Amino acid sequence: MAAHAGLPERSTVAWRRPIDAAALRSRERLWTLSTAAYSVPFVATAAILVGVEPGLAPVAALSLVHAWGIPELHANRGAKVVSPRRRRDEAAEATALGLLGDLVGHDARELHDRTGLVLERGALGVWLVGEAGALLVRPGGRRVHCWCVRVDDPSLPSADRTAHLLLALREDETGFATVANLAFSGAAWRVRRRLPEPMRPALDAARAAARRA
Amino acid sequence: MARLVRMDRTGHTTLAEWTDADDAAFATAADAFREQLEAGYYAVVSEGEGQARQVTALPADAPLVILRRPIAGG
Known about the structure:
The complex is a heterodimer.
Chain A: H1 21-52, H2 57-79, H3 90-103, H4 106-115, E1 118-121, E2 126-129, E3 133-137, E4 143-151, H5 158-171, H6 173-179, E5 181-187, H7 188-194, H8 200-212
Antiparallel strand pairs in A: 1-2, 2-3, 3-4, 4-5
Helix pairs in contact in A: 1-2, 2-7, 3-5, 5-6
Chain B: E1 2-6, E2 13-18, H1 23-38, E3 42-46, E4 52-55, E5 64-68, E6 71-73
Parallel strand pairs in B: 1-5
Antiparallel strand pairs in B: 1-2, 3-4, 3-5
């Protein structure tokens, strides 16, 4: 039987460095540095303003709001990668759900029914696969990477889009992360606040699994 | 009975079914398989959590072969 070693879609982004564990750690450091670069100047400005003139406290407060809000906006962009899309054909959805259900175990199926996300353990961490993106909870459960990745066929039912991503992830985890675009990397609690409420138990379950890993 | 299914707008479509004992059905399935690969689909055999392999020839021993579209960064 002929079989490929990696995800064939890798060839479409041949210039990218493969996203293995070392590359992920490097990206985590860069995201932390960029978050600090956005936030620290606003915190410093607030401190200086209050130090120079206590009457400027309202302006300092505005500066602190910026320091808090910019990472929140980034986390919001990250959380949106797994936002559910509009359902079109209920019969097709039911058929697609049957196939997706055949691909995952009982626990993952039950979690998907409740949250719309499929939990999948990988070498890089614990994944939550949605229909147009995936979250990767790193070992320890404190950091989440939000990946924007999709199958380019809007006619597919939601569960089929999820199954496409799940199969690609299973074929080649590093290739999957290489093909996907990173929308956010940061604190899990920040992403959790921005997820639709029904999806939050999926992130809780993934964080618990990542802590045990 | 083994199946070749394609994920599509209907949820999925079973394109072919075969058994070890039925060479003609397998040959028909292999033809359908090749047509779909030429149309741009990738064929995957899922092997449980964390494991799947892409195949470029129809494996006679796999119970389920799934045809999927390429993915891309959004």
